[in-house]
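Pasting as-is:
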Amino acid sequence: MRGTRADPCRPWPRPQLALLPLLVLLFHRTRPQGSPGTLPPSSPGSPGTLQCYGVGPLGDLNCSWETLRDLGAPSTLHLQSQKYHSNRTWTVAVPIGQSWVTIPREQFTTSDELLVWGAEAGQPLWPPIFVNLETRMKPEAPRLDPDVDFSEDDPLEATVQWSPPAWPPHKVLVCQFYYRRCEEMSWTLLEPELKSIPLTPVDIQDLELATGYEVSGRCRMEKEEDLWGEWSTILSFQTLPSAPKDVWISGNLCGTQGGQKSLLLWKAPGHCMQVSYRVWFQVKGQKLIPEETPCCSYSIPTQAEWAAVSAINATSWEPLTNLSLVCLGPGSAPHGVVVSNIAGSTELLVTWQQGSGEPQEHVVDWARDEDRLEDLNWVRLPPGNLSALLPGNFKEGVPYRITVTAVSPGGLYPAPSVWRFREELAPLAGPVLWRLQDAPPGTPTIAWGEVPRHQLRGHLTHYTLCAQSGTRPSFCMNVSGSTQQITLPNLPWGPCELWMTASTIAGQGPPGPSLRLHLPGAPTCGTRYCPTGSGRRSPILPTAILASSTWRRCPRPSPPGTCPSWKWKT
């Protein structure tokens, strides 16, 4: 490294070299060689405490060392000529607390050979090191040309032009280059290492289309295998765009998912790259003008028969990715779709039976209830594969819509979608009740809406309808989950409050909003008598109010199965 230029050198007596071999044994150490996710260190150096090398752009000598606790830090650094001035030794003062010095180029002779050591109070701290100024140089970083060339056929290759370091000039350097794909931590060494004379470009092979890459290089003197120079600035480049390989549809193209619109979806190839695409459709035998769009969806026009997607500025050998949008008859669609939980896993297993056709592949797609059309997930499978393990973290109590579709060159055969929960939970809300027109007059008819799937959190087993009149205890009855309205011919006259809960196999949910009624007529039932359907007063029994209905006292809300005997007309 560069640093403060040292004080002018002054002669210093030769050390007692007889002690140096012993010091070599005492101070043998190694340096770390880097860590995962980073480029190797630019100058690991040779084993030992002290290292010196020439640095650009002037050729100064940079010396640095590790401080050993038991010996302390040097106060002086000594350099002894071994080639041109064998009886000459220089002394360089070391600033307090500093572990390096830079000695100006004019203080020594070019191509000399030196012995260098550190001392404190006149005593050597380390064994001396031998420094050949002709070869012991740490080169500057090479320069990478930002204009990258790519091959015109498959497999894809990139060629990067580069220039050797400006310092040291006119030397044969050995350079190595590393590359990595964007978002990756580890670097890959390109083989073989390259020399600066003759200069050849960097070739990177087997690259992926539509992907970002990074490359960096460093150099060393040909005879100095342990002294690498600085890393070049990282060069980032992107390979040519590519048409998406995986195109699918989301929505109601074949009428299996309600009244939704449909989107053409595709998975972006490559990594860390923004690509624009061109989308084609054919409607009633006519090709529509292609539209440009960003990644990775486009609305499908009504009555579209097929779609194709390509990348703008893609390679010449890349074909369009197309998909037939024709919905074929249900006879060839997959059937018997079963979705199962995997013990100890958050994944789901989907199995099915093949239809009568001969598809070229099956596609299984899935989405959570209330997800956007763009949030669809899907996997493709070969025709002989009749099961798929859906990856991902499927959550408890969350409804997932799963669809299996057979794909052929002529069109699509979707099976009816199924809803599945990895694990069912009790509902979060109850149904909302409302009153329909009385039929006949004075006989209320009650209806209710379905609890939304994301609040139901399981498959509905049954409803529980509860009623309370005045200050008397509430009474409840179970209602089939396939029913959404009920007629109540024998409610008592006067004010009445109704509410309903929903249940799954995991338990009963909270009650929905109450519905308050007031039936005109005679007063509300007393403690001893109430009207009957015949107009005669009848004594109230502990478990019955009306002859045509059976009631049971139930808590609010009532546990599942506690009121199976309340039989109103439905």
